[in-house]
Design goal:
heterodimer, A: mainly alpha, Arc Repressor Mutant, subunit A, 5 helices, elongated, B: alpha/beta, Rossmann fold, 28% helix, disordered N terminus
């Protein structure tokens, strides 16, 4: 599978989308951090990309990676946008899960049971 | 933003695009291996959503990417991440990230491996030597892994013992065969990995 569009061919350059920033305002976002849109805040004043992100998240939770995939933006750019939206209260992350500690036996057992149930 | 993703995947999706509201925890496993070993196929066979691709831009000079385009003399390199999702129960979702495991993308690796439960290394018996780099990176990062031989139709038959020796695997590292195109076979490979992770965690706890 080949990506449809190369970064260089993007209509709007990444640094425009992020106002020239390359780092998010917070560093707690993981690829699998789950995002939920606050549905009571107006979208006025948001950039088209942030508005798109909000619209994507409104129907239900998605991970950071999924949001990047659907918006066709690099993960790093997506994180900058998400961090802004968290700062402004538009996005909340589901229970600040310190993404399950790898040593968590209970989680591993749940994963195993879930996989076995698919056979 | 842009055109519909080019995808040859026409399977109907079992669920919606969004997660059920009850999901509380997200975990991830990495599917790693060299170019064309079947990572995308593996993720696609298991994912409940149409597999997505995102990319991370790395600032790195003239590197050979996991891409048919081959060498590109640029100061930025794009590393593709293919990923899929499996909702395992009401409260738990598993993400699978398929990515090339090259040494030079350590920055990306650190981001991906943080919080990851473990990795499944896909290997091809015709090119076993190409798996060493990936396994080296995982060992360096301290991420536990299992190895699955993706059986290509035209690959010569090798006994698992022979492959284990060739890959210089620890006796405890699981080695299984799988067909990345097949959902059941791929699920079984993941199960072998998670069983190993559980055993390992149990041993660490009782050590």
């Amino acid at each position: 599978m080949t990506p449809r569009r190369r970064p260089g061919e993007r209509l709007v350059r990444s640094y425009v989308v992020t106002d020239g920033r390359s780092h998010p305002s917070r560093n707690t976002l993981d690829l699998v951090t789950l995002l939920i849109a606050a549905d009571d805040l107006p979208l006025t004043g948001l950039s088209p990309e942030k508005r798109g992100l909000m619209e994507l998240c409104r129907p239900g939770a998605l991970s950071v990676a999924e949001v990047a995939g659907h918006l066709e933006l690099p993960v790093s750019v997506t994180k900058v946008l998400i961090a802004d939206l968290i700062d402004s209260g538009h996005i909340v992350t589901r229970a600040p899960i310190p993404s399950a500690r790898p040593s968590d036996t209970r989680i591993l057992q749940e994963v195993l049971d879930g996989l076995r149930a698919r056979l | 933003m842009g055109s519909a993703p080019a995808s040859d995947d026409v399977r109907p999706r079992s669920g919606g695009m969004h997660l059920p509201p009850t999901v509380q925890t997200a975990v991830k496993l990495l599917i790693v291996g060299h170019f064309a070993v079947g990572k995308t196929t593996f993720v696609g066979a298991l994912s409940e959503i149409r597999p997505l691709r995102t990319e991370e831009v790395m600032t790195q000079a003239g590197a050979l990417v996991d891409d048919l385009a081959g060498t590109r003399d640029k100061t930025t390199t794009t590393v593709a991440l293919d990923f899929g999702r499996l909702t395992l129960n009401d409260a738990l979702v598993l993400y699978l990230f398929g990515t090339p495991g090259q040494q030079r993308f350590t920055e990306l690796w650190q981001d991906m491996t943080r919080g990851a439960l473990g990795a499944l290394v896909l290997a091809d018996t015709r090119r076993l030597d190409q798996s060493f780099e990936v396994m080296g990176v995982l060992e360096e990062l301290g991420l536990p892994y299992a190895v699955a031989l993706n059986e290509f139709d035209d690959a010569p038959e090798h006994g698992l013992d022979e492959v284990r020796e060739a890959l210089d695997l620890l006796p405890s590292t699981p080695l299984v065969r799988c067909d990345a195109r097949d959902r059941v076979s791929s699920t079984e490979a993941l199960i072998a990995l998670v069983e190993y992770l559980l055993t390992r965690t149990g041993e660490l706890e009782h050590a």
